């Protein structure tokens, strides 16, 4: 109290930035006529509500337009007032009904400090301000890392184990298929792609319609699946079995240029880096180990969202939200939080890349990427990310956008995005997407529902057949030179009739399975689908497709490349054949397991009752699509053209630029 | 969401917001009677919108159609997020027009036509926006009347030191 007491009564209060609440509070205390109910304490350093009931009934309405004492108190708390604990003395003095509140800047006769009384950052109910999650997240991150380090020894054992398994399965795989590393070369193009493409992208940064950089799904994924089967690691599938042993490494020279990524990562299978001993971020092996651990070993659910249906995550998925619009960002972060995730954010593509590649940053399980952003658009950012992490599921990058035209969607896929979350998104839509792509983090993975918001499924499923058609017919040279990029070696090494043989890989897989080892492969597949693997892992053809879009649409896009390839070689891996076989095996039948998987709902749409999207796709592919799988070796770039056409049609048919979220959702479902 | 029905939106809500979208946001308040989260979001949007309007006006003066398209897109995103469908729809049109497409984004149009149309749309958008802002401010209550409409879950004030 500074002795200016006299001023207290009449002061008009410094206008400035003093909050209305504080002004009103001050004014209220300046009024003498209810001083028996509420007034300054003797020393002027606090104020006291003597008669709660009276205060609520008569004073509050006068000054605060409500009569809710609890609200009043909450307000006070919010402005950092504290209740003064009653002492014996105060009890005697003020009675036991008194509530005394204090704030260091709130003093009788001194309104000069009132501006200093600010609303606290929200803490109580919403633990984290949506814009602030990173702070707490950082803490968690640190904790997580520490824990991980403690477990490092254990994890190393796990690593060795994995390596062992991988090696074994790889050997099997190779033996069975006669698969040669060289064959893998076809992948190269993929890896290269980012490089070639990216420049373009950069040029077109702001224009979503810029030339799409191609980024086909990885053949590896197919292989991955295969490995999976062999390992019988059905349930919470550990991140996909790493591949790098396959010698993909050689890819590096070709495709990866610099910095970001140790080319090796190419294999892209989640933990590869750690396992291979090639840290994702080359510099810090430890970190990668950590990541790996986290991925594999759930730390238990740390957080639950307040609202209803929250999945049981083994650990909160770490999601990087790249979004320039503050409103969208806030709500996005909030939704993420609400569904039990650990959200992080970046405000544009460049920042997104930076954060993603930050060696000290978290290992994100999934990236939600806005498309139109200043500095660097989302597609380009994703392309950049994919340079270092070619596996489209490592991590999945989901486009968030209201631009869902065909050309747009093609661009997204081509840049390495795996799905699209139409804006404005809903909590449920978000959740479904997360569940779809993070099955391995769920304790009770739910099947991706038809509802899954991705646009992809719809296109693919609905008109898959068309696609293939186009493909077949389109032997036309690929516009893109994508095929060219392929390492000569690969082409030379294996020559396969483009169409007929499809992908050796898949084929081999099947052969292996059938003949060799796992009679139950089929069932395994099912498991995979239903369970975790779904999104990424599907059998050959499917794999690709799933990879790309989770739905048929994407697949198509990728597929195209193949057909167009002048050189069939690249495709050797292609599931092409694989598809057929697979189709026959598993999904071929309408009733096939596949149906269950993809998007049951959507697929259901398929009149045939054919299985889910997958089923349809497979069928389609079996019938029409010769060329083979999409993503695989196919020279992605080249293929683009025809596929687009197909996709576009599909999309147009099913999706319009309507923004009513409900409509959209419905459409997707129907389309599928 | 089970608690969806508890928001007590004014009966005229559908005139201003997409109720489903808006409720999803309110839901994120998680029962907070003061709606800190949604309030912050909405009030933040006000600033954002006003800034964007200024930039749009500026772009009109400069006949910067690409920028108009971009701004339209930007505001479309946030208005859609909040469920302000009227603003969203106009923003979308502006996005298309700025890109020299017709309002629906299909046919091509000429620059002067685009500018002309956008110039006509802007006041309408501001009008719609203002109506929505007023409605929203009213809904959330201005700062000083906070808590007015609260129905505190806890019986007991939790003022603790």
UniProtKB/TrEMBL annotation, chain A:
<feature type="region of interest" description="Disordered">
    <location>
        <begin position="112"/>
        <end position="139"/>
    </location>
</feature>
<dbReference type="InterPro" id="IPR011006">
    <property type="entry name" value="CheY-like_superfamily"/>
</dbReference>
<keyword id="KW-0902">Two-component regulatory system</keyword>
<feature type="compositionally biased region" description="Basic and acidic residues">
    <location>
        <begin position="126"/>
        <end position="139"/>
    </location>
</feature>
<feature type="modified residue" description="4-aspartylphosphate">
    <location>
        <position position="370"/>
    </location>
</feature>
<dbReference type="GO" id="GO:0016301">
    <property type="term" value="F:kinase activity"/>
</dbReference>
<feature type="compositionally biased region" description="Gly residues">
    <location>
        <begin position="598"/>
        <end position="614"/>
    </location>
</feature>
<dbReference type="GO" id="GO:0003700">
    <property type="term" value="F:DNA-binding transcription factor activity"/>
</dbReference>
<dbReference type="GO" id="GO:0000160">
    <property type="term" value="P:phosphorelay signal transduction system"/>
</dbReference>
<feature type="region of interest" description="Disordered">
    <location>
        <begin position="652"/>
        <end position="672"/>
    </location>
</feature>
<dbReference type="GO" id="GO:0043565">
    <property type="term" value="F:sequence-specific DNA binding"/>
</dbReference>
<dbReference type="InterPro" id="IPR036388">
    <property type="entry name" value="WH-like_DNA-bd_sf"/>
</dbReference>
<feature type="compositionally biased region" description="Basic residues">
    <location>
        <begin position="562"/>
        <end position="580"/>
    </location>
</feature>
<feature type="region of interest" description="Disordered">
    <location>
        <begin position="441"/>
        <end position="614"/>
    </location>
</feature>
<keyword id="KW-0539">Nucleus</keyword>
<keyword id="KW-0238">DNA-binding</keyword>
<keyword id="KW-0808">Transferase</keyword>
<feature type="region of interest" description="Disordered">
    <location>
        <begin position="291"/>
        <end position="311"/>
    </location>
</feature>
<dbReference type="InterPro" id="IPR036390">
    <property type="entry name" value="WH_DNA-bd_sf"/>
</dbReference>
<feature type="compositionally biased region" description="Basic and acidic residues">
    <location>
        <begin position="652"/>
        <end position="663"/>
    </location>
</feature>
<feature type="compositionally biased region" description="Low complexity">
    <location>
        <begin position="588"/>
        <end position="597"/>
    </location>
</feature>
<keyword id="KW-0418">Kinase</keyword>
Automatic annotation (TrEMBL), chain B:
<dbReference type="InterPro" id="IPR008207">
    <property type="entry name" value="Sig_transdc_His_kin_Hpt_dom"/>
</dbReference>
<feature type="domain" description="HPt">
    <location>
        <begin position="34"/>
        <end position="132"/>
    </location>
</feature>
<dbReference type="GO" id="GO:0000160">
    <property type="term" value="P:phosphorelay signal transduction system"/>
</dbReference>
<keyword id="KW-0597">Phosphoprotein</keyword>
<dbReference type="GO" id="GO:0009927">
    <property type="term" value="F:histidine phosphotransfer kinase activity"/>
</dbReference>
<protein>
    <recommendedName>
        <fullName>HPt domain-containing protein</fullName>
    </recommendedName>
</protein>
<dbReference type="InterPro" id="IPR045871">
    <property type="entry name" value="AHP1-5/YPD1"/>
</dbReference>
<feature type="region of interest" description="Disordered">
    <location>
        <begin position="142"/>
        <end position="161"/>
    </location>
</feature>
<dbReference type="GO" id="GO:0005737">
    <property type="term" value="C:cytoplasm"/>
</dbReference>
<dbReference type="GO" id="GO:0005634">
    <property type="term" value="C:nucleus"/>
</dbReference>
<feature type="modified residue" description="Phosphohistidine">
    <location>
        <position position="73"/>
    </location>
</feature>
<dbReference type="GO" id="GO:0043424">
    <property type="term" value="F:protein histidine kinase binding"/>
</dbReference>
<dbReference type="Pfam" id="PF01627">
    <property type="entry name" value="Hpt"/>
</dbReference>
<dbReference type="InterPro" id="IPR036641">
    <property type="entry name" value="HPT_dom_sf"/>
</dbReference>
């Amino acid at each position: 109290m500074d002795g200016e007491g006299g001023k207290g009564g009449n002061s008009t209060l410094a206008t400035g930035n003093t909050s209305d609440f504080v002004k009103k509070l001050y004014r209220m205390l300046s009024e003498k006529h209810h001083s028996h109910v509420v007034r300054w304490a003797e020393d002027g350093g606090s104020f006291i509500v003597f008669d709660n009931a009276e205060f609520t009934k008569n004073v509050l309405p006068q000054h605060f337009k409500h009569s809710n004492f609890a609200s009043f108190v909450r307000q006070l708390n919010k402005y950092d007032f504290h209740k003064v604990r009653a002492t014996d003395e105060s009890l005697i003095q003020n009675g036991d009904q008194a509530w005394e509140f204090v704030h260091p800047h709130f003093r009788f006769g001194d309104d000069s400090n009132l501006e200093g009384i600010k609303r606290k950052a929200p803490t109580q109910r919403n633990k984290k301000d949506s814009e602030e999650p990173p702070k707490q997240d950082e803490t968690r991150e640190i904790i997580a890392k520490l824990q991980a380090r403690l477990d490092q020894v254990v994890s190393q054992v796990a690593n060795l184990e994995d390596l062992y398994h991988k090696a074994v399965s790889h050997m099997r795989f190779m033996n069975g298929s006669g698969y040669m590393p060289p064959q893998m070369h076809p992948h190269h193009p993929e890896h290269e792609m980012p490089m070639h493409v990216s420049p373009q992208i950069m040029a077109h940064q702001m224009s979503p319609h810029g030339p799409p950089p191609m980024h086909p799904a990885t053949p590896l994924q197919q292989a991955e699946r295969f490995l999976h089967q062999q390992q019988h690691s059905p349930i919470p599938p550990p991140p996909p079995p790493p591949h790098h042993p396959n010698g993909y490494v050689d890819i590096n020279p070709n495709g990866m240029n610099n910095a970001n990524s140790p080319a090796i990562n190419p294999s892209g299978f989640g933990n590869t880096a750690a396992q291979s001993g090639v840290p994702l971020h080359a510099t810090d092996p430890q970190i990668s180990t950590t990541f790996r651990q986290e991925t594999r070993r759930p730390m238990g659910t740390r957080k639950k969202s307040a609202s209803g249906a929250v999945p049981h995550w083994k650990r909160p998925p770490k999601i990087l939200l790249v979004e320039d619009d503050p409103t969208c960002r806030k709500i996005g972060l909030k939704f993420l939080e609400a569904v039990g995730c650990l959200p992080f954010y970046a405000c544009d593509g460049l920042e997104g890349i930076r954060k993603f590649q930050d060696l000290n940053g978290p290992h994100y399980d999934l990236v939600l990427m806005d498309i139109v952003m200043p500095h660097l658009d989302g597609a380009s950012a994703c392309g950049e990310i994919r340079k270092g992490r070619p596996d489209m599921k490592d991590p999945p990058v989901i486009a968030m956008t209201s631009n869902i035209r065909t050309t747009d969607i093609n661009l997204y896929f081509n840049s390495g995005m795996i799905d699209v979350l139409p804006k404005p998104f809903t909590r449920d839509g978000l959740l479904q997407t997360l569940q779809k792509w993070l099955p391995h983090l769920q304790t009770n993975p739910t099947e991706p529902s038809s509802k899954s918001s991705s646009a992809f499924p719809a296109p693919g499923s609905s008109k898959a057949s068309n696609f293939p058609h186009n493909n077949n017919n389109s032997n036309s040279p690929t516009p893109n030179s994508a095929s060219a990029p392929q390492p000569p070696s690969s082409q030379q090494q294996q020559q396969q009739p483009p169409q007929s043989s499809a992908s050796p890989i898949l084929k081999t897989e099947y052969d292996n399975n059938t003949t060799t080892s796992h009679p139950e492969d089929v069932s395994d597949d099912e498991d995979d689908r239903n369970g975790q693997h779904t999104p990424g892992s599907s059998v050959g053809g499917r794999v690709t497709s799933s990879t790309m879009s989770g739905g048929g649409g994407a697949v198509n896009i990728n597929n195209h490349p193949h057909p167009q390839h002048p050189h069939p070689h690249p495709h050797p891996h292609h599931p092409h054949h694989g598809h057929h076989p697979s189709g026959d095996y598993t999904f071929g039948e309408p009733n096939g397991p596949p149906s269950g998987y993809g998007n049951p709902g959507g697929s259901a749409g398929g009149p045939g009752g054919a299985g889910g999207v997958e089923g349809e796709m497979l069928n389609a592919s079996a019938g029409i699509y010769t060329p083979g799988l999409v993503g695989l070796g196919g020279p992605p770039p080249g293929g683009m053209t025809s596929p687009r056409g197909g996709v576009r049609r599909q999309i147009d048919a099913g999706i319009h630029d309507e923004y009513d979220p409900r409509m959209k959702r419905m459409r997707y479902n129907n389309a599928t | 969401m089970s608690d969806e029905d508890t928001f007590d939106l004014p009966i005229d809500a559908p005139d201003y917001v997409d109720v489903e979208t808006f409720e999803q946001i309110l839901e994120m308040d998680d029962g907070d009677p003061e709606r800190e989260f949604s309030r912050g979001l909405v009030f933040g949007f006000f600033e954002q919108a006003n800034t964007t309007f200024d930039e749009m006006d500026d772009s009109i003066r400069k006949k910067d159609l690409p920028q108009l398209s971009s701004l339209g897109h930007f505001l479309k995103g946030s208005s859609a997020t909040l469920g302000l469908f009227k603003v969203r729809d106009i923003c979308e049109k502006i996005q298309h027009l700025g890109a020299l497409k017709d309002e629906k984004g299909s046919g091509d149009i000429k620059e002067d036509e685009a500018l002309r149309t956008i110039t006509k749309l802007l006041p309408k958008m501001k009008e719609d926006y203002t109506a929505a802002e007023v409605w929203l401010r009213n809904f959330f209550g201005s700062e000083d009347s906070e808590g007015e409409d609260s129905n505190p879950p806890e019986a007991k004030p939790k003022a603790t030191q």
